[in-house]
């Protein structure tokens, strides 16, 4: 998405200062129109409701203008929309940085024999997760750690069960 | 999660066992930088025992899109395991 650059996401951080979601929603609506970028009154309202400088307000309105138009006119597919939401979430999360999964690599092997069993066909999964901790808390140690686990079919099914329950909970929360 | 790929040569030097998998679905309502939030997140804790038997807790927090990607990866693995 060439239309949204890193500095746009940085500018969107100012939205965090909003006192309510309504303020954010209103800003999105106001910034959408063509006239939004030149509007002095919108700039003033943004400055005062978010307690930001004129420059920050201007950058925010520009970013919001692009974002709202991108979402509307490009008719983003759900995958792209998720990317935008994801990037926005990252912006929201950047203040408190908790360990995050940055990479997940896996491989499925078949165990065909062992010293105790001459013939078998047991699938097993080798999973490697790369976890990023808050770099400021790690000091000299690297902030990304890798953990490799071997998962049997049973373990995997148990995990899937748990993940499915999270998914169900999410649907329940979303429908409220 | 930025990307997930089926790697042909993952680093296999130290394989651990997954002992336990705990999860929590939470909602952040406020923070020092954002007064009004309604931000759902998934927190996962993996209890992993390395080859020496030492148990380590690995804690991960994910956004909902990240969780959905995570879930999708595991479903893919399960599907592959089913066919072999």
Which features would summarize this protein structure in a list?
heterodimer, A: 176 residues, alpha+beta, three-stranded antiparallel beta sheet, 7 helices, B: alpha+beta, 4 strands, disordered N terminus
Describe the structure.
The complex is a heterodimer of chains A (176) and B (84). Chain A is α+β, with helices and mostly antiparallel strands and 176 residues long. Helix content of chain A is 52%, strand content 18%. Chain A has 7 helices and 3 strands, in the order H-H-H-H-H-E-E-H-E-H. Chain A has a 3-stranded antiparallel β-sheet with strand order 1-2-3. In chain A, helix 2 crosses helix 4. With 84 residues, chain B is of the alpha+beta class. Classes of the chains: A alpha+beta (176), B alpha+beta (84). At the A-B interface, helix 5, strand 1, strand 2, strand 3 and helix 7 of A face strand 1, strand 2, strand 3, strand 4 and helix 1 of B.
Write a brief structural summary.
By secondary structure, chain A is α+β, with helices and mostly antiparallel strands.
Shape label of chain A: elongated
Q: How does the helix and strand content of chain A classify structurally?
A: alpha+beta
Q: Which percent range fits the helix content of chain A? A: 40-55%
Task: Report the sheet-strand fraction of chain B.
Answer: 35-45%
**What is the CA-atom radius of gyration of chain B, in angstroms?**
16 Å
> How would you describe the shape of chain B?
flat
């Amino acid at each position: 998405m060439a239309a949204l650059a890193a500095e746009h996401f940085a500018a969107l951080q100012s939205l965090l200062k909003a006192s309510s979601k309504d303020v954010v929603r209103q800003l999105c609506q106001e910034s959408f129109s063509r006239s939004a970028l030149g509007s002095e009154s919108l700039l003033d309202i943004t400055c005062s409701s978010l307690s930001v400088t004129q420059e920050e307000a201007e950058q925010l309105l520009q970013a919001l203008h692009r974002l709202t138009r991108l979402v509307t006119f490009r008719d983003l597919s759900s995958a792209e929309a998720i990317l935008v939401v994801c990037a926005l979430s990252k912006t929201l999360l950047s203040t408190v940085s908790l360990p995050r999964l940055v990479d997940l690599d896996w491989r499925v092997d078949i165990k065909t024999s062992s010293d105790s069993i001459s013939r078998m066909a047991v699938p097993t999964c080798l999973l490697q997760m790369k976890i990023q901790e808050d770099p400021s808390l790690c000091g000299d140690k690297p902030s990304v750690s890798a953990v490799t686990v071997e998962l049997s079919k049973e373990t995997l099914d148990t995990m899937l069960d748990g993940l499915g329950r999270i998914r169900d909970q999410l649907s329940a929360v979303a429908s409220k | 999660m930025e990307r997930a790929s089926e790697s042909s040569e993952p680093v296999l030097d130290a394989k651990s066992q997954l002992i336990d998998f705990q999860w929590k679905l939470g909602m952040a309502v406020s923070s020092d930088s954002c007064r009004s939030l309604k931000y759902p997140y998934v927190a996962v804790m993996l209890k992993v025992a390395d080859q020496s038997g030492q148990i380590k807790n690995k804690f991960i927090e994910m956004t909902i899109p990240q969780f959905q990607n995570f879930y999708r990866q595991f479903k893919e693995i399960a599907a592959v395991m089913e066919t072999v």
